[in-house]
Each structure stands twice: as structure tokens, then as C-alpha cells.
């Protein structure tokens, strides 16, 4: 029988007798069952978080830091068990699951070092005015299935550090590792400070609209982000939205195809392309287009698509059937329109597991669905460009604005282009590097607010200005 997992509510691991199955995307076998929670469990979790907020918000920040560090240590101490479970539910190859499970405690610890300092607005003979930060209260966290653990901890750590308490909902597709971590945290995080509850997508709007939740921090699709903003508007909840992207990578003619091909490949295909900041549109200068596209095709041939738990797998399955169908639909659309495939494009419908082959397209038009939409799969459209002005315009012609990259032998030129891109992050000669100490957030429809760094931490707080009139005659 599949292993049963419990939710963490008010310091207790609970189940409610109703279950949702969780499937391994590599073979479509049910590997676990988690509680299917609704309004009753949510109310309990929110009430616990509200009670805990009273003391947690007044707990000295050094104590709060210690708790976060101990929570991070518990993850690190169980690394081997956790990364295997993560591969089983998410699909990513073991090496990438290890990366996520090393990253999660490291990010928590880095975020725990942040300081919210008071600022002095005025210190004159007549007045002292200072700004302090106060926690917003109970936070509702909602996370997706592509990096289920990272996305959860990067919300939980700053919430706790700021003095907030949190009720977090994992994706129904990938709740197992998070619930196993919840079990490890049960006796570390004071009761009610961290609550983790699972349910179908329908639990999401209940969180967004819950009258006793003060803030929503969400990572997921732009479509859901819009619903969240709408739901949160009823009582003007604070919101942070980390949404979709259609990131452009620009390869200038001075980049060496032999040196960039492998890096460029993994900027698109890590986690089977299911990364918000994966390179989803690759613009290559016409002078090196043929050589670089050939090098990418050659490199792709050596990468194995398969079960992430098997040695040698470079690209795992798509995480769930719905996303698998969507990626297949985009590939079919490209075929119907006669676009040229350099690699892949043939999805084998027989057998189990949501496998899409590594697929590279040769110069499809800008309005092709596979270029204009976020694919979120192992698909890489290569496009030719002639001038810098033209490529900047094409890169910016998107409703998204999450990240981008420039590959060049001249980093100054890269920065010059980066400054003209309408995105929250731009990398020169690297990819996917996010620092927990630097703000990460999207422009345009890729997001609202930021995570990470002081900017991210401040999103869990209100500012409060306290002014003392020094020369007042009152008593
Ligand atoms: P999704 O929007 O379908 O689901 C995300 C979460 O929202 C899940 O927990 C889901 O149960 C919940 N949800 C669904 N409907 C809801 C509603 N109406 N109200 C509240 N919650 C609801 O996203 P997904 O398919 O799980 O993830 C893929 C998307 O996430 C991609 O677009 C990707 O780019 C984006 N993403 C963004 C970032 C970032 O940091 N910007 C990071 C990772 C993923």
C-alpha cells in the first residue's frame, strides 16, 4: 500500500480520513497518499497560526533565527532520504534532486542572516522619527510542483524571521517531501508557527480568501496569480506573486559555440525545462547560428531522457499529465505549422511515464506558439538575429519579464544589453543562478513584489513610523 503522509497543524501531525494519491511521473505508480483538506482543516491551521503569532511575533529575532537554522539542519541531516523521495514524486534526476535538497537548508540559513534594521527619518532638536518593520501576521503560502521544497522553504524562512506565522499549501502533485520535512520540524518549530496542509487546487482560493490570513505569498502560473490577486483584493491582503516567464537568452557573435553549447543546453533542459527562469527562447546571432545549433544538436544526442532515479539520466519526465499534454500540444502545433525540428519532436505514446524527448526547433517564427508561450518542458526554440537593436526588441516583446541571459566574450557589452531588457534578473555568461541575498522578482506579468534579500523579507512586514516630538509641552 502507498505510504500515508500527514499534515502539520498546530504542532501535530494530522490526517482527516480523506486522501489524495500522489503519482511518480516516471512510471505513473501511486507512491503516496496525503490528506485532502478543505475549509475545516484550513480554519484549524489558520486559528493555530493566529494564536502562535501572538508569542512568535514577540520572540526575539535571535531566537527566531535559531529555530530557522535548526529547521534547516533537520533537512540537511535527512538529505539522502529526502532527495530520493523528491525524485520519486517530482521526476527530476537524482543529481538535480540532491541540488534542491542541498539548496533548501542553505537558502534558509542565508535568509536567516538578514537584518531588518530601523531607519531614522529625522533626529532634530524638535523631533525623533524612526521607521521600524512589524510582521504582517498570518501568511498563506502556495507553491508549485517544479521545485516543491525550495519554493516552500524560501517562503517559510523569511516569514518566520520577520515574526509572521504561516500556513503553507504544497502543490497537490508534489506534497510528499514537504510533508516528510514537516514531520521533521514538528518538534522544532513552535506549535502553530508553521502549518502545512494539503488539498486539491480548490484549497488555494480558500486560502486566498480566508479572512484571517493577512498576506499571500504565491509561486505558480501567471493565470493563477491573477486569480490570487483578485481573491486577495476583498480584504486587501498583501501579496507577493512569483509567476511564469518566457526568458530570452541572447548569444552574441563573439561567443564561442563550442564553449557555450553545453551551458546553453542546461539553461533550457535542467529539470526537464520546468523552471520559471529556464531559457525558453534562444536568440543566436546569424554569424554563429549554424555552428551553435549544430553543437547543441550534437550535445543533445548524448543526454539520456528517463527515470530520474536511474543512473545516467540527464532529463527526467514531465512532472504531471496535464503539463505533459500541454507540452505535447505545443510540439504538435509546431509540426502542424511545418516548423523544422533539429532534434526530437516525436513523443512515444506507448509505455508509462510522462516522457517528452529533448526537442530543439530550428528558427521558428516569433509568433509560433512554441516561442510565444511559456513551454515549461524540454523544448528549445533557436532563433536567428542580425542586430543588437532587433534582438532586444524581440526579447522584450513578451508579457512576461522574469529573467534573461546574454552570452558574450565582452561582459561590458553584455551589461549594456542587460540594462535594456525588461526583466527582473539578467545573467551575463551564466544561468539559473539565484542568490537568497538578492531580490528575485518579475517585471510585467511575471510577478508582483520580490522574494529573497532584504526586499523579499520586507514583504512579510509593514513599515511603522514612530515620531516623538522632543520639545512638546504636554505635561
Ligand atoms: P499553478 O498556478 O497551476 O499552481 C501553483 C499552486 O497554486 C498549486 O499549489 C495549486 O494547487 C495552486 N492553485 C491552483 N489554482 C489556484 C487558485 N485558483 N487559487 C489559489 N491557488 C491555486 O502552477 P504550476 O503549474 O504548479 O507551476 C508552474 C508555473 O509556475 C509556471 O508558470 C512557472 O513559470 C511558475 N513558476 C514561477 C516561479 C517564479 O519564481 N517566478 C517559480 C516556479 C514556477
Blueprint (SSEs and pairs):
Elements: E1 3-4, E2 7-9, E3 12-14, E4 19-24, E5 29-35, H1 39-56, H2 61-77, H3 79-90, H4 94-112, E6 119-123, E7 127-135, E8 138-142, H5 148-162, E9 165-169, H6 176-185, E10 194-196, H7 203-208, E11 215-219, H8 222-232, E12 238-242, E13 247-251, H9 257-269, E14 279-285, H10 289-301, E15 304-305, E16 313-315, H11 321-336, E17 340-343, E18 359-362, H12 369-372, E19 379-385, H13 388-396, E20 400-401, E21 403-407, H14 411-418, E22 425-428, E23 443-444, E24 447-448, H15 453-458, E25 461-469
Parallel strand pairs: 1-5, 8-9, 8-11, 9-10, 11-12, 13-14, 13-21, 14-19, 15-16, 18-19, 21-22
Antiparallel strand pairs: 2-3, 4-5, 6-7, 7-25, 12-24, 17-18, 20-23
Helix pairs in contact: 2-4, 2-5, 3-4, 3-6, 4-5, 9-10
Account of the 3D structure:
The chain is α/β, with parallel strands linked by helices. The chain folds into two domains: 3-243 and 446-465, Aldehyde Dehydrogenase, Chain A, domain 1, CATH 3.40.605; 247-428, 3-Layer(aba) Sandwich (Aldehyde Dehydrogenase, Chain A, domain 2). The chain has 15 helices and 25 strands. The strands form seven sheets. Strands 17-18-19-14-13-21-22 form a seven-stranded mixed beta sheet, sandwiched between helices. Strands 10-9-8-11-12-24 form a six-stranded mixed beta sheet, sandwiched between helices. The protein is globular, with a radius of gyration of 23 Å. The N and C termini lie far apart (74 Å). The mean pLDDT is 98. Bound molecules: nicotinamide-adenine-dinucleotide.
